Amino acid sequence: VITVTTSVSFSAAHDYRREEWSDDKNRAVFGLCANPEGHGHNYRVLVTVSGPVDLETGMVINFDQLHPLLISCVTAELDHVYLNRQIPFFASRIPTLENVALYLWQRLSPEIAALGVTLTRIRVYEHDDLFVDYDGFLGETAAA
Ligand code: NI
Asked: pTM for the whole thing?
């Protein structure tokens, strides 16, 4: 299997809080991330697709098709938004890195399938030293 990976970035705000929990419990579980005023990250998203190598083009996917899709579905929709407040997926889910990966999988998988290739991995970085990988299987039920 040959995979092709490209990346896009966005900057967004979030907070980690459960309204049904006390302030003390939110702080105990989520630490500084429980601050209701929020904080931001510069996210980097690596999207990996796979498929056969086209005999005519020699490509799995044309970057000129894939990259604009990621700009429109990731950067244009998530850049400079407050994830908890502006993205319905996060109205009921804490916008952790894990849940951002689940969201991106749900958002991108059908769009990428329409290009004739298969989404095989989403990697999301919140910092250089912290990222999450999602392959569409683990935690699938939580994404529903
Ligand atoms: Ni954070």
From this structure: 0.92
